[in-house]
Write a structure and sequence with these properties.
Layout (H helix, E strand, L loop, with lengths): L3 E4 L6 H7 L5 E3 L1 H4 L1 E2 L2 E2 L6 H17 L4 E4 L5 H13 L5 E4 L12 H10 L11
Parallel strand pairs: 1-5, 1-6, 2-5
Antiparallel strand pairs: 3-4
């Protein structure tokens, strides 16, 4: 069993990489939470709920013996930590893939938001492995 976390800014190729791993892994991302009747309907007021959903689904897959690949922005160690905690529950060392390409922002995230995300992005996550 494995847990793979794919991180990067919007438009960096996270979903593409994760979907290329399907067949070996189950793909999860918070974007799936926002899909309603085939449409992407983002609601900032439900962001916490979306992340809780994704973490819960990750735990369910691991409980069933499946290997999830989770693609989200994961800009900070704080955002990654719940998944490291889940991995620890299952005695799994998470693998992290960092995407840095620039394919374009399909969810129309405003430029100002992208700049803020880029400014807070924590590249060194080594301390998460030293728990």
């Amino acid at each position: 069993m494995k847990l793979i976390l794919v991180r990067g800014l919007p438009g960096s190729g996270k979903s593409t990489i994760a979907m290329n791993l399907i067949g070996w892994y189950w793909h999860l991302e918070t974007d799936q939470f926002w899909m309603k009747d085939g449409e992407y309907k983002w609601d900032a007021s439900k962001l916490g709920e979306a992340h809780e959903w994704c973490q819960s689904e990750t735990r369910k897959l691991l409980t069933r013996g499946f290997s999830p690949v989770v693609s989200n922005t994961f800009t900070t160690k704080k955002e990654l930590k719940p998944y490291f905690d889940i991995a620890k529950e299952f005695d799994v060392v998470p693998q992290v893939i960092l995407c840095q390409a620039q394919y374009g922002n399909i969810h129309n995230v405003p430029d100002e938001t992208l700049k803020k995300m880029k400014a807070r992005f924590e590249y060194d996550i080594s301390e998460l492995y030293n728990v």
